[in-house]
Each structure stands twice: as structure tokens, then as C-alpha cells.
Write a structure and sequence with these properties.
Blueprint: H1 2-35, H2 39-51, H3 55-64, H4 67-88, H5 94-104, H6 117-126, E1 132-143, H7 144-156, E2 161-166, H8 173-187, E3 191-197, H9 210-214, E4 218-222, E5 238-241, E6 245-249, E7 266-275, H10 278-293, E8 315-322, H11 330-341, E9 345-349, E10 353-354, H12 357-368, E11 372-378, H13 384-399, E12 403-407, E13 410-412, E14 416-419, E15 423-427, E16 431-432, H14 433-437, E17 441-447, H15 449-464, E18 466-468, H16 471-475, H17 479-490
Helix pairs in contact: 1-2, 2-3, 6-11, 11-12, 13-17
Length: 495
Amino acid sequence: MQRDLSYVFSEVLRLLPSIWLALIIICGLIVVFYERRNPVVTWAWLMVITLIPYIGFIIYLLVGLDSRKYRMFAQKSKKDEKIFNAFVDLKSNKHLQKQADLISRKAMMSTPGSEHLNDLIYLNFFSGNGVYSDNNNVKLFFDGSSKFEEMLKDIRQAKRFIHLEYYIIRNDETGKRLIDTLAEKAAQGVDVRFLIDGMGCIFIPKRFFKTLKKSGGHLAYFLTPHFFRINFRNHRKICVIDGAIGYIGGLNIGNEYLGLVKRFGFWRDTHIKLRGNAVKQLELRFLMDWNFCSPDYIDFTGGFFPQVRNAGSCVSMQIVSSGPDTAQHNILNAYIKMINEANNTIYIQSPYFVPDSSIFDALRIAALSGIDVRIMIPSKRDHPFVYWASLSYLGELLELGAKCYKYERGFVHSKIIMVDSLVSSVGTANMDIRSFKLNFECNAFIYDEKVTKQLEEQFIRDIEESTRIEYEWYLQRGNLTKIRESVSRLLSPLL
């Protein structure tokens, strides 16, 4: 019996190379012909499968085989499109009909020097379903503490409903404060709904939400949480209160986002508070996502879109979403358009800078054209592979004349781009492939000189808290760093 087992074991060992080769071929056929991925992603997966024997194949089976979910999201996309068309209904809404006509004729922006922004508005409206509104009030937040306290204050004053959609809420003092406040409002009869991402909140115990549910609040998960769902994260961060106030930006809910965690220190982020018709677009996004995840279906006729008369300002903007549930890579396309339309300056702040080839080429061309391109990333290594990949891309841009910085005061988590002091974008999308093509994201594109200059002024202040990455320093980095950068860059489509 022992001899038989030894013989079987030796035969398995002898056949392992052949089995491994067969697995690579089968997996390669699946990736190339069945999944039909981007060629760069295909080669990245094939490299992982080939260079990490057996483990790489298991990783691919667990996290790389995404066809079923893509089909599910394609169905969501069709439903969302129908809901959006019914919500907008150009035939019955004369105001939107006039707006669509102006956008079609690229005549929405007529101020001298800003006419070229009509192309971006056209792109976001007809491709990204970004309804244009010009009666918005915008308040900027550059740290988590001030934003969180004001949001709690607005939540406490809610009369009818509170809708939140967040990637992460922590089981800590900050998270508990929010849940307790929401539970109080739910007990008062306010309609409270909280949509969280399953992966982002994977370590949150169900008892954490007990008081909210017991008080009458509603909770839903965006995809069931499990350890092997790396892709398809709902990275959106939305709060809508009574249809009158909206919040959108980079901040999640937790102590670290208020600068209370020693590992990160001061947390530098950007978030905005909105009043005006743009809030309706945030609410629409929330309702479409909620109805996708929860059996507790919300009827859109429930008075969630109150009439906005005067927001106290006239900031123009579009709310644009992207992800596996949108037909196009809307935020990526809008970023590329902004960069291509730049005449003087491009300022980018992102915790992760791993661009795809299209946006990287746009930045290269901008730098070669003499445009002032400035990019800021954190000095702290939140994700080492992403950090090394970021340095690899920044090094190429440094050679072309771009100015790059590492933020030193704490951790910069802000996700913004500003062009020519005319147009800016604030939202949830990082400057990386995952945000552009795999995550569910939401950004505000702001066509306002005053707001954009405020963002630029803060960016300049952040430079004072940063170390400039000099090209000479970059050339002198060690061989080990060069190897880390090269490997990380090869794997960048998967990071």
C-alpha cells in the first residue's frame, strides 16, 4: 500500500510541469478569448500565472474571473439608462430640452476664454448622463474633521430622509458617532438608508449596525462581502439630506479620515457640500445603486427630488458617474478631455497615480507642449506596489518637464484635477486604472473660476508641505528600487 502511494506521488510530481503548462494554456485561452480583456491586463494576468506557479492560477480563479459580474452590471447599466431617461424626460421638461439644445450646439459656455469647455460639457451630458446645472452653492472642505462635523450637524437637522453611500465606515469612535446619530433620526421617523460596500466594510460586524436597524433605519451591502472580491468596489461617497444638501468627495467614515490615527497623521482630503440642482443628480445616483442592491425597492415618485429655487450661488457643474455599470469610462474620458483642452496649467492630486496609457500619453503631450503640469502624491506608502508604480510613471513625466511632489505633512487622499483656473473635478476617482475601469466612482465637474482657484490655492499651500521630486534624485535611485518600480509597473493593470 505504501509503495502504491509512493508511486502515485512520484507520478504526480513527474507530471506537474505538464499539468502546469496545461493550466497556463487553459487559463490563457479563457483570458484571451472568453474574458476579452484589455491586452495590457491580459499580459499582466498571464505573467502572474506563469511566474507564480500554481498560486497565480488560484489567484486568477478567485479574483480574475469576472465575466458573470460584468454581465450583471451590463443589466444594471440598461436599467439605469432607462431610469435616467425617464427622470430627465426631455420631451416634457422644457428647461432640460433647452439645455440639451444648447449643449448640442456647444453654446452653453459663452464667456470669452471658456468656450472650449463646451466640448467637455457635451461629453459629460451625452456620454456620461451628467445633467448640467448652474444654480449650485459649493462649500469646500480640506480636512475630514470639519466635513464630518458639518455633515453630522446637517443630519441632525434632517426632516424627511437621509441617504448615505460609502465605501468604508470604520468600527471606531467616528463610525459609532455617525451610526448613533442616524439611529436617533430613524427613531424620529426620518427615512434613513445606508449603502455600504461589502469589500470596504468586510471587517465590520453586523452588530455594529444593530442600533440603526432597531430604530427603523435601512442597511444594504453593495455586493456580498468576501475576502476574494478585489474588483468591483463601490468607491462612491455620497450623502443626500432631504434632497436639499449633498456631500461628495474623497472622505470615508472613520478615525483615520479625521487625522486621529498615528500611522497616517494629518489626513489631507477634499470634499464638497452642495446645495442646488446638482443634489438631484447625487440622489438619483444613490437611488439607482440602492435599488440594485436592496430588495427594499424605492419608488422614485416618493418626493426625493424637491424643487430648488435659490441655492444662494450660481456655480455650474455636472455630476458624472463611472464604473462597470456605465457604458463608457466616463470619468476617464472627462479627465483626458480636460487635459487635452489645457492651455496653461494642469494640477493633479491623488493618493494613487497609476494611469492607463491614454491618460498618461495625454499628460506626456501636455508636458511636452510647455503646459505647467504638477502632480502630487503621498510620501507615506499606503500600498507599496502602487507607490513604486507611481514613481515609475512620475519619473517619465519629470524627464519631460512636469513638476512632481510628495506630500509630507500626513497622508494626502484628495482626488482632484484643476485646469487653467477654469474647470476642476472633485470626487472619488483616483488617478489609476482601478478607479477608471473597475470601481464604481462619482465625481463633480465644476465649471467655476472662483471654486477652481480656491482648489488651486490649497494645492499651492500643499506644495509648501511637500518635497519636490527632482529628476536628478530620481536618476540616482538604487537598483532595488528600479526593480520594484519595474515589477510594480508591469502589474499596474491589476493594482
